[in-house]
Amino acid sequence: MNLWACSVLLALAWPHAGSDWVRQPFWYDDARRDKVAQGTVWPRPKTITTTADSLSLDPDGFSFQTAGTAATSAVCKGVLEPALERYRSLLFWIPADARVSVSGDDVVASLQVTITGTCTQYPSLESDESYTLRVPSNGQATLQAQTAWGALRGLETFSQLVYEVNGKHMLNVTTIEDEPRFKHRGIMLDTARHFIPVAYIKQNLDAMAYNKINVFHWHMVDDQSFPYQSTTFPDLSGKGAYTPDNVYTPDDVSDVVEYARMRGIRVIPEFDSPGHMQSWGQGHPELLTSCSPTNVQPDIYHLGPANVARNATYDFMERLFREIRLAFKDDYFHLGGDEVHFQCWMSNSEIQDFMREQGFPNNTQGFATLEGYYINRVLDILKAFPTRTRGIVWQEIFDNNILSGDIDVSLDTIIHVWQWNNSNFQGIPYKDELPLVTAAGYQAILSSCWYLNFIDYGRDWPEYYACEPYDFEGTPQQKQLVIGGEACLWAEWVDSTNQVARLWPRASAVAERLWSPQSLTDATAASPRMEEQRCRMVRRGIRAQPQGPSYCKYEWNLAEQSMSYNPTNPKPTPTTSGAQGIMGYVQQLLWLSYLALTFGLW
């Protein structure tokens, strides 16, 4: 009996004993071919024609070339040349010792990048992001764009066409004509409920660029903390930040704005007022309204919303916002305006006296008018700046103006629609709000269906993929006033340990909805591309969370990633010896069992 058992164990263990373990084909290899795409683009281009004819990329022989203003304009070159360096690293991820020679293959020898128009120092709402990319069978690939921002989008697409086959970088013969459907495609990140270090903000900016998202809406301050370090009013962060270390210095802001600019991303700051200002009052209590308990709200805070009756409040805002405008560069400034609780104003005699002077009634309609008065004065401050500046406000400003019967907010203000109606929040469905906003002539941004801080068990990105900004009753002219949308991540339950994984790849679904044609609605058909995009981001150092059972070979790298985040220097892929897994240990156990039986140890 022992001899028979020893023979069986020896036969099972022998392959491992005689040579290094070699990974055998696994059943999931076949299943994965249907689940994960290869060399596909996310978000899907406007038009794409690709063939089965493949070409190789030679890391040693491939080159970028430039033409047009890409080669002559200092402004264009200032954006494009660093991008070409980044993408050279992103194109060739297979470690040198694992690469297979492409000698004798048909290869893509070069990519010529041509910019035909003029370049601007910073991206804007009106920036042209269109491009044409051709990878012909002769290997002379071309990328043509009107602007540097379009060239960046085309470079990202070119990098996504590349896939790995048996140690080679490959891509297929492809022609792409592409441009975004919406010009405002954003991520809103809250850094007040939890402080997010700059390194993680940059990581998110890289992920945004990989998904062609072009707006970073930085909700920097809120009730809980004021991390913006103002040079004009240092006590705002000096007393309003969580700690002296949990602040964004002027150098930090400049660093983030420049990092975003080099990726074609606008940075729009939000300094929410007149509500959500508790942290402002730590250093400047004179800004806020002193509240008294009322029958409506007996446990009211001592300090509430901004004291909108004092001219000193507007003088303060003018000085602070002027500083912020110079720091953030973009034409647009998010003023907030949401969730202002009127009970505090109702309890304050100074506010009550001011409302009587202005002829505002002492009721909900009157307080809505009061908030509109404040927002209009702040909008006038922005318009008076030497550099063109316009406001974005949450939808309550529009709703309150309807309530007050006096819609006088300037039409060049963008209305940010965020409320919804379901088990999480009983608000106004966006399909009811957008017809009103656009009928009044306002441009709108949609976020209602893209609150990524709400999480469910299972795969929820198809829900975000199904949300359509034009899904409301309105004329074609009204729908053209919807300029895009934003995925929002509020940070009550998010900090630097999980914000990147919470956003990605769920925000990728929003990216495709805002970039790709409206007809692209099938999440099941998109799923293989989503799997590839998620794995691609992981390979580039983005901790994008899985969307169900799947396999991404680059998951092995995550244990080696550290805070010294470097997207252009990904960690090497694991060797087969590192991937032997459980089967190697089983064979070792069988070998030991054979020895034990042979020498009578059992």
Topology diagram in text:
Elements: H1 2-18, H2 27-35, E1 47-57, E2 63-68, H3 69-72, H4 74-91, E3 107-108, E4 110-115, E5 131-135, E6 140-145, H5 148-161, E7 163-165, E8 168-178, E9 184-190, H6 198-210, E10 215-219, H7 235-240, H8 250-261, E11 266-270, H9 280-283, E12 288-290, E13 303-306, H10 311-328, E14 332-336, H11 342-347, H12 349-358, H13 364-383, E15 390-394, H14 396-404, E16 414-417, H15 430-439, E17 444-446, H16 461-466, H17 476-480, E18 482-489, H18 499-503, H19 506-515, H20 523-539, H21 581-598
Parallel strand pairs: 1-3, 2-4, 4-6, 9-10, 9-18, 10-11, 14-15, 15-16, 16-17, 17-18
Antiparallel strand pairs: 1-8, 5-6, 5-8, 7-8, 12-13
Describe the structure.
- This protein is an alpha/beta fold.
- It has helices at 2-18, 27-35, 69-72, 74-91, 148-161, 198-210, 235-240, 250-261, 280-283, 311-328, 342-347, 349-358, 364-383, 396-404, 430-439, 461-466, 476-480, 499-503, 506-515, 523-539, 581-598; strands at residues 47-57, 63-68, 107-108, 110-115, 131-135, 140-145, 163-165, 168-178, 184-190, 215-219, 266-270, 288-290, 303-306, 332-336, 390-394, 414-417, 444-446, 482-489.
- The strands form 3 sheets. Strands 1, 2, 3, 4, 5, 6, 7 and 8 form an 8-stranded mixed sheet that branches. The chain has an 8-stranded parallel sheet with strand order 11-10-9-18-17-16-15-14.
- Strand 7 and strand 8 (168-178) form a beta hairpin.
- Helix 1 crosses helix 21 and helix 4 (74-91) packs parallel to helix 5 (148-161).
- The longest helix is centred in the middle third of the chain and has 20 residues, at 364-383.
- Mean pLDDT is 88; it is low at 13-19 and 570-586.
